[in-house]
Amino acid sequence: MGIIRQGILGGFRKKTGSVVGAHWRTLDVIRGLPRKSGKAPTKLQKDQQSKFGLVTGFLSWIGDLVEMGYKSQSGIATAMNSAVAYNLKEALTDTGTGIELNYPKISFSSGRLRLPDDLKAVAVTGAKIDYSWSHLEKDDKFLNARDSANILVYNPVKGKLVKSKEAETRSVGAFSLQLPANFTGDQVHCYISFNSAVQKALASETFYAGKLTVI
């Protein structure tokens, strides 16, 4: 039974006939009941399911970074949905034998906050990745010395990642990320983004700092 909240023209919730009403992100929405199908999925459907699984599987591990990084892009959609839509379009590659993630194109942050100059990451002994960047500019609308850096390193060999949310401020200009000792010898993908200290919904683009061998 559906329940009308605000008269005949108001939104409703629960099932009414063949539709379901709900209140979602300030909106009253309705959706049809799902239909069961006995047909086997087509190759196109299987490919789409595979792509969706790859993207959501990766982004689900870093949901906190996505929530911070795509907040300004979300609008009605959630931050995660916005990130999934972008990565489905930009961060997949067809190798000829299957669909894989295109790691340099992965994005967990998107926005107008300025990235620092001279961003780089290097592998150092002891299974560490040292990030560094310059900070010489004065504060403005899209840059502040107190902006925070978010660090991500992904190891595709082991299917594991190491991250540090709000690891360091822009003004410090460096951060050293400790990786597990058993990452030594593996190649890892390195990323960094920044979030504004002044405008909470403002974030930078994701910066891919390269593919490094852990030493």
From TrEMBL:
It holds the Pfam family DUF6266. It comes from the Bacteria. InterPro entries: DUF6266. This is Uncharacterized protein. The lineage of its organism: Bacteria, Pseudomonadati, Bacteroidota, Sphingobacteriia, Sphingobacteriales.
